Amino acid sequence: MARGFRGIGKVRRMMRDLPENFRRQMVSVLNSGGRALQSSMRAKAPRRTGATREGITYKVSDRTMKLRVGLLGTRAGRSKLFYARIQDLGRKAQVAKRRYVVAVPRNGYRRYAGKRTRDLGRKYHPVNVRAMAGKHFVTGSFPVLRQYIGTAVRGIWSRALRSIASGGND
Q1: How many domains does the chain have?
Q2: CB-based contact 104:119 (threshold 8 Å)
Q3: Does some domain include residue 79?
Q4: Between 20 and 30 A from 166 (CA), which of 102, 115, 128, 151?
């Protein structure tokens, strides 16, 4: 699989050299598209406590003009919503080992088969974890919204290229 696109450096330079008024228009379109994507993702998200729905955010980078929508934030912030990723992508059936603590004798040793052994007081038992199909509330395709954003960005991009080609600074 290819790691990138040919000529992406030229496109990035063109984006960097884009006139300021077109850059502002592009950022405003990305912001409105981000809000629309965020609301549709929140509508599809599970509603049990509302934490998952509130964890879905969007971010637009003014410099690189990138739109990110989903479960964003710092690593610590995402760790509170770890189960939202499992709900979104699903999981396979598996047998997990769960630990439980047993009472330990006062001296820390017990007799097992006539021998004195160290007992740490931790035992493991298997737990069957059922498979769960993904809900895809973040990783879904959202074709209508993507088409809306793409159409708006294409219009701005074509006007900017015409302006640059004519030498104007519209």
Answers
A1: 2
A2: yes
A3: yes
A4: 151
Structural domain containing residue 158: 8-91+134-166
Name every residue whose Cβ is closer than 8 Å to that of residue 116 and which is 6 or more positions away in sequence: 109, 110
Find the mean pLDDT for residues 151-157. Answer: 89
| Same domain? 72 vs 139 | yes
Q: Answer yes or no: do 50 and 82 share one domain.
A: yes
> Considering the domain boundaries, does residue 68 fall inside one?
yes
Angle at 140 between CA 135 and CA 144, to 5 degrees: 135
Give the residue among 98, 75, 87 at the shortest CA–CA distance from 45: 87
Question: Using an 8 Å Cβ cutoff, are 89 and 131 in contact?
Answer: no
* pLDDT tier at 124, thresholds 50, 70, 90: confident
Q: What predicted TM-score, i.e. pTM, was given to this entire model?
A: 0.72
